[in-house]
Amino acid sequence: MKVAQFLDFEWRAFALAVAGSALLCGSPSVADEVDGQAKFAAPQRIKAGEAFVGAGRLYPSPVFYDVNGDGHKDIVVGDLFGRVTFAAGTERGLTPETPLLDSSGKALKFQNW
Amino acid sequence: MGSQFVDFNADGHVDYISATFDGSPHVSYGSKEGFGTPERIKDARGQRIRISSIWNYESKKHENLEQTSNGKERRERCISALAFDWDSDGDYDLLLGSYEGGHLYRQMNEGTNAAPKFTGKNIPVMAGDKPFELAAKMTAPRLVDWDGDGDMDLIAGSFGDSYGPNGTGGGVYLSRNNGSVGKPAFAALETLIAPSPKGHAAPTRPDAGLYVDAVDYDGDGDLDLVVGGYSMWKEAPRELTAEEQAIVAKLKSENAVAVMKRNAVAKKQAAAVKAATAGLDYSNPEYQKKASEVYKEFRPEYMGAMKQVQAIGKKLGKYVPAPQRQAFVWLYERK
Predict the structure, then answer these.
(1) Predicted pLDDT of residue A3
(2) Do B330 and A101 touch (CB under 8 A)?
(3) Would the N or C end of chain A have less CB density within 10 A of its end CB?
(4) How much is the CA Rg of chain A, to the nearest whole Å?
(5) How far is A98 from chain B (nearest CA, A)?
(6) ipTM of the predicted structure?
(7) Assign residue B52 a region: left if phi > 0, alpha if psi is -120 to 50, beta otherwise?
(8) b or e along B2-41 (b: 16 or more beta carbons within 10 Å of the residue's beta carbon)?
(9) Do B228 and A77 lie within an 8 Å CB cutoff?
């Protein structure tokens, strides 16, 4: 557990160092593939602020989209209950998750059974 | 629930489309003030769009509204939806994903974005020469130009076995669009992330209920995968001293008694519900009322018994690792 947390931290620092202001920005081009198969590094948990994104939620479903229109992609996370959170993408990483608000200032929620 | 941001009604504001386990797609229309209250997307007849099974909010039950050609009930809930201009005629059609069987359907829009007329007819989306299928149950598909050829490919995650410590977990799959804009032709599914074998000693990956998005997370010009899901793990046990072994034995004994007590309360509660609702159909509001009264009456006793089980489990966890299941969101950085 402690090792995993350390790696999560290290990954975040690495991503910030490499990507700099390009983090969560830009348009992707054609990806490199070997024999048509995409290769991935070992998965790492994503943090928003100091907390793991989606932790404690039921079936978190992430989508990246520039919700606040500042040029950085934000992460929007839905869950089984139809609740939605939002963490803003910045040059320093993701801000802590907060409920995505609707036009009346209430937490946006999709109706579920 | 999956999420898609798109200007669904072409009013210049981005809308938010989703579908939940109620079996129908919803849209939260955007405006300059923000997102509105989500509402169901309806077809040209004014019916809520569905695959076959929906949650009826009045009867509080899942209802199957369609049958297969051999007369059996089709039990497929639409739990994901995407707006996609399938035929490139300038308006959004819908892709509807089912939980059971992990099938994908398209429903065409014969109107416009501003005045849609969804046909109510679901046409299976093919993946190669077979209908699109994720037998391990589909979470939600996403449209993305994965191979950079100018058209939208499909990526989708599967649930897999979401509960047991064993069994096979979920994976992530790709169906390339080998057609062209307006004439999509999705290929057979390729595996991007293999289903989880589970059995880890630490949270190392999403093991079940994999919801995926593709984004250039690290800004290196290719698409990475971001995947939400449950990690399921059990830490390796450590060697216990003789004193600790004695404590564990005592706690296990106490746990067995506490579980028996909890189960006895549950049994008593079930019998009380049965007696209180005798002769009433489940769909009868009176049934719900009487059952609720019983649950309320038994709640303190049941919760007390449950808390005792949990408290002992917590103590045991200090000596004997218990299976863990917690959700996170993971980055799969593309090499």
Answers:
(1) 34
(2) no
(3) N
(4) 16
(5) 15
(6) 0.86
(7) alpha
(8) bbbbbebbbeebbbbbbbbbbbbbbbbbbeeebbbebebb
(9) yes
